[in-house]
């Protein structure tokens, strides 16, 4: 683009059956609209190597004119139909509207709120939902609306579903684009998971399925575990088995106490969840069946 020209930036993401001519067709479409490609990443999941035989692409581009992503998608229809694409255009740099779900553990919530406040995470936290009141002071500190939607111990499936419907209403009312389970200790119903498909991220420690239930760090300590890890993944009806976005580990040793292990776990959970959220809102994650493609 010539210097001094005001530009708007966008991201195109797409997936489709692998075929020749995809990159050329995308480049030609953008060239015809006087767009300039800033960054382009692509990946072919080769069937002969056990892959899905699908092609994935992310293109970050700029335009001298303000473009409507909806109209771009409509104009792109000929290309998307020709290659049987699932494609979407997004404005770059527009903060995603996010809802955070949390129970009593506040480390992931605090980390996300701080990153948003510091300007390092392009999101607008529209609200926080919790089944406990404990973290309302933290929400108040960051001036984020806090919604206490309690669930009694041993609540029936019907009561849980009513609470989920209240969250669904909040999502619809506030135009929520992403739901983040920042250590929300409730099992979601299949119906709620369907509502959230592709737009909800969960975080959990690496001990599943080895040390399920209460006090996983004490169980891990007794077994002499040497790595503490965390997994961020999309929410599906298969508990803690959704497409993985990011994972990481922290090394510990024989001298580590349960408290040391718990602290290490909290740190790695917060970092992994923050990276997963950032990559999602920057449109870097494409779902590939039960896996993901992450363009960093």
Secondary structure layout:
Layout: E1 8-17, H1 22-32, E2 36-45, E3 54-63, H2 69-75, H3 77-83, E4 86-91, E5 96-102, H4 107-118, E6 123-130, H5 136-141, E7 146-148, H6 157-174, E8 178-181, H7 190-195, E9 200-205, H8 216-222, E10 227-234, E11 244-251, H9 258-281, E12 285-288, E13 291-294
Parallel strand pairs: 5-6, 5-8, 6-7, 8-9
Antiparallel strand pairs: 1-3, 1-4, 2-3, 9-10, 10-11, 12-13
Number of discrete helical segments? 9
Report strand order across the widest sheet: 7-6-5-8-9-10-11
Total number of distinct structural domains: 2
Query: Termini separation (Å)?
Result: 25 Å
Mean pLDDT equals 94
Low-confidence blocks of residues: 1-6
The total count of strands amounts to: 13
CATH architecture of the largest domain: 3-Layer(aba) Sandwich
CATH topology of the largest domain: Rossmann fold
Q: What is the 3D shape?
A: globular
Oligomer: single chain
Helix content: 25-40%
Q: What fraction strand?
A: 25-35%
Strand-pairing-aware structural class:
alpha/beta
Radius of gyration: 21 Å
Largest sheet: 7 strands, mixed
Elements, N to C (H/E): EHEEHHEEHEHEHEHEHEEHEE
Give a structural overview.
This protein starts with 7 loop residues before the first strand and ends with a strand. It has 2 domains: 8-91, Alpha-Beta Plaits, CATH 3.30.70; 96-294, Formyl transferase, N-terminal domain (Rossmann fold), CATH 3.40.50.170. The protein contains 9 helices and 13 strands. The strands form 3 sheets. It has a 7-stranded mixed β-sheet with strand order 7-6-5-8-9-10-11, with helices on both faces. A 4-stranded antiparallel β-sheet has the order 2-3-1-4. A two-stranded antiparallel sheet has the order 12-13. Helix content is 33%, strand content 30%. Helix 5 (136-141) links the parallel strand 6 (123-130) and strand 7. It is α/β, with parallel strands linked by helices. It has helices at residues 22-32, 69-75, 77-83, 107-118, 136-141, 157-174, 190-195, 216-222, 258-281, and strands spanning 8-17, 36-45, 54-63, 86-91, 96-102, 123-130, 146-148, 178-181, 200-205, 227-234, 244-251, 285-288, 291-294.
């Amino acid at each position: 683009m010539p210097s001094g020209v005001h530009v708007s930036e966008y991201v195109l993401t797409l997936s489709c059956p692998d075929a020749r001519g995809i990159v050329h067709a995308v480049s030609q479409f953008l060239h015809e609209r006087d767009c300039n490609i800033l960054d382009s990443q692509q990946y072919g999941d080769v069937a002969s190597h056990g892959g899905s035989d699908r092609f994935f692409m992310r293109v970050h581009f700029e335009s001298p004119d303000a473009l409507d992503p909806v109209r771009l998608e409509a104009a792109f229809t000929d290309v998307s139909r020709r290659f049987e694409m699932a494609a979407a255009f997004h404005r770059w740099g527009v903060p995603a509207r996010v809802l955070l779900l949390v129970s009593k553990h506040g480390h992931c919530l605090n980390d996300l709120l701080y990153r948003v406040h510091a300007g390092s995470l392009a999101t607008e936290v529209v609200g926080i939902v919790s089944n406990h009141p404990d973290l309302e002071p933290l929400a108040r500190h960051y001036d984020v609306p806090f919604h206490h939607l309690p669930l009694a111990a041993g609540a029936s499936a019907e009561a849980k579903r009513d609470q989920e419907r209240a969250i669904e209403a909040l999502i619809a009312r506030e135009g929520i684009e992403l739901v983040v389970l920042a250590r929300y200790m409730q099992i979601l119903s299949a119906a709620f998971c369907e509502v959230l498909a592709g737009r909800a991220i969960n975080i959990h420690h690496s001990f599943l399925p080895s040390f399920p239930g209460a006090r996983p760090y004490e169980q891990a300590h007794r077994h002499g575990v040497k790595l503490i890890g965390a997994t961020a993944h999309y929410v599906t009806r298969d508990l803690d088995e959704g497409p993985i976005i990011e994972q990481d580990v922290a090394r510990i040793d024989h001298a580590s106490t349960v408290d040391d292990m718990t602290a290490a776990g909290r740190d790695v959970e917060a970092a992994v969840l923050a990276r997963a959220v950032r990559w999602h809102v920057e449109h870097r994650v494409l779902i590939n069946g039960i896996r993901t493609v992450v363009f960093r």
